[in-house]
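Z., the sequence and structure:
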Amino acid sequence: MANVTTERISKNDEILGGKACIAGYRIRVMDIVIWHEDLGMSPDEIVAAYSELSLSDVHAALAYYFDNVEEIRGDIRHNGELANELRARFPSKLKEKLLHGAD
């Protein structure tokens, strides 16, 4: 994958596995999409929660998403699949204790 950089969004194989992120930060476009689309946070709420971001950073990430929906939704799906795989391989010890009581 080639490095992609715009003024606000960058993709570099050596940063966050090449996922699109806010340039200069380790915040992925897919994180902003999840906060906005899935959790219902407004751009202003995202900036309030992550004060290092500007409102234009958030809007740039959302614009990138709308121009690259398939890529970003694929990244989100891949992360979900990876999380499910890890949960299956490494079950929660706390969950086991809660389900079966302390022995």
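The mean pLDDT is 87. The chain has five helices and three strands.

Let me know what you think.
H.
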